[in-house]
Write a structure and sequence with these properties.
Blueprint lengths: L12 H14 L3 H15 L24 H5 L5 E2 L1 H8 L3 H4 L3 E4 L8 H8 L8 E5 L20 E5 L16 H5 L5 E4 L9 H9 L2 E4 L6 H10 L3 E7 L9 H5 L4 E2 L7 E5 L11 E3 L5 E6 L1 E5 L30 E2 L14 E3 L12 E7 L3 H4 L2 H6 L14 E2 L2 E2 L3 E6 L3
């Protein structure tokens, strides 16, 4: 049976302490005082005293709650900004329409993903929205406590009111949402880990997964989605694209980057206990701690227009500017924008090539990095005529006796 939610109020600790002293003098409890205030609101039809302010209320930021203990230990608890979720999801409106959405790495009431899909539920004509919370999330149960303790729980929406569900302070009107008969809020039987049978069952029922999984478990997470043949749009670090589990998905045109993030860093909110020792970090005007993370990308298998947009090539091949590797039959191209338009052979390009890659224009052959000899088949190594070099550390391209950075070996497709 669904668990009936209770109402919680966020109060500044100093204000709470000083108000409590007043109530102690009067001889009433904090709860009684608040109930007295609410009854006065009902009786008067308004707040029973004047409120004047020249300062607009700040818009709160929403984010994702973390998933599991490994996530906690590795301090991998990053909360995505609502603006980043909104900007990307609006590029996929047609593909999202009418679907069942799963956010299975999110606290439903702290998640920018849940917030976005709840607000846009009717415009997208969604079939349903499901969000699950991990039991050890640092924010579990703080925003919207459930009877019976925090623990792991799920929120399911199958309908949303036509009128706005966003309150003046930017938060969701959760009471209205979960008072609707088609919606559900209740505890999970397990701890909410995406690898449990309970959560896998929810995954099988979903059409599209949209979330920010823990970076430390990203490879395992995306492999689960791939094994279940699920459509997804998820946040991750671009370095994941170079791993043995995920690079083949790019190579085989099963995964590509999303639409809205191509360079720079992204701002993530972190818990109050998170140490602010990152290169760029701080506390914003709303008192939220944040760090900025480089190399963040959207990973998806949803079709995008960008994935079929060819790179405009302007350079011509010159053997002096494009040296050959000593251990591959391929030339070095230090920047994607310098890919020569007239070269038909194999080329080594930076990892950032994936930001502009179109499978209609180029073929990805392999990743030349320190694990190439063990991660690439002998057939492909033979195709690019790989020769073991005493200094290549397992397969990195060598130029004049020096190792190059990891490179993606590509060639142009025939026109």
């Amino acid at each position: 049976m669904p668990t009936k939610p209770t109402t919680t109020i966020r109060i500044d600790p100093d204000v709470k302490k000083r108000a409590g002293e007043v109530f102690d003098d009067i001889g009433i409890s904090m709860s009684a005082a608040i109930n007295t205030f609410l009854k006065a609101v009902v009786r008067e039809g308004t707040i029973p005293f004047d409120i004047k302010t020249d300062h607009p209320k700040p818009r709160p930021n929403f984010g994702n709650a973390k998933l599991n203990h490994a996530f906690i230990v590795k301090k991998d608890e990053f909360y995505t900004q609502y603006e980043d979720v909104e900007k990307e999801m609006l590029n996929h409106q047609k593909l999202l329409k009418g679907k069942s959405i799963l956010c299975n790495c999110d606290d439903p009431f702290e998640s920018a993903f849940f917030h976005f899909f709840a607000v846009n539920f009717n415009d997208l004509e969604l079939e349903s929205l499901t969000s699950t919370c991990y039991a050890e999330s640092s924010l579990a149960g703080k925003e919207y406590p459930l009877e019976g303790g925090a623990g792991a729980y799920k929120a399911v929406l199958t309908e949303v009111p036509d009128e706005t569900i966003v309150r003046p302070d930017g938060s969701l009107d959760l009471e209205s949402l979960f008072s609707m008969p088609g919606n559900y809020l209740g505890h999970l039987a397990g701890d909410g880990d995406f690898r449990t049978d309970e959560c896998k069952a929810l995954l099988r029922k979903a059409d599209i997964v949209a979330t920010n999984p823990p970076f430390s478990l990203f490879r395992e997470y995306i492999n689960l989605l791939e094994s279940q043949k699920k459509d997804f749009i998820i946040l991750g670090n671009m370095n994941a694209a170079t791993t043995k589990e995920i690079f083949p998905l790019f190579r085989d045109n099963k995964v590509w980057y999303g639409e809205s993030i191509r360079s720079g860093d992204r701002k993530f909110f972190v818990p109050d206990t998170y140490p602010l020792n990152a290169t760029v970090c701080g506390i914003d005007n709303n008192g939220r701690r944040f760090i900025r993370v480089k190399g963040v990308r959207w990973f998806t298998n949803l079709k995008t227009s960008r994935s079929h947009t060819s790179i405009e090539l302007n350079c011509l091949y010159n053997k002096d500017e494009y040296p050959f590797y000593e251990n591959y039959d391929a030339i070095e191209v230090g920047r994607t924008q310098n890919i020569p338009m007239d070269y038909e052979g194999v080329m080594g390009v930076p990892i950032t090539f994936l930001d502009k890659y179109s499978p209609d224009q180029f073929e990805i052959i392999m990743l030349a990095n320190g694990n190439a000899r063990t991660n690439v088949s002998s057939k492909i190594l033979s195709e690019v005529n790989y020769r073991k070099h005493p200094k290549d550390k397992g397969g990195v391209g060598m130029i004049n006796g020096r190792r190059a950075y990891a490179r993606i070996l590509i060639r142009r497709k025939s026109l």
